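EI: anyone free to look at a 79-residue chain?
SC: sure, send it
EI:
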Amino acid sequence: LGLSSVDLKLLHCASNGMVDKLIAKQLHLSAQRVHARWRHIRRALGANDRSHAVAIALSLELIAPPNGARVLAQRLNWK
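SC: here you go
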């Protein structure tokens, strides 16, 4: 799909509810770079927006589910 390790980290951060400003700080990137990576990620995954990109990445198992989702799934015996 042409996603870099930074792209996957960005998707993971977003899946855990982080906003772009915090993602930029966490990954030591500029806000402009984060926005550019989102454009690339959306194109690569064929996503309409950032939430859609995260959903696609999760469904393709490119990233692990967010921490809260794993706990909920275990409690509901989904996995």
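EI: The CA atoms of residues 68 and 74 lie 10 Å apart.
SC: 👍
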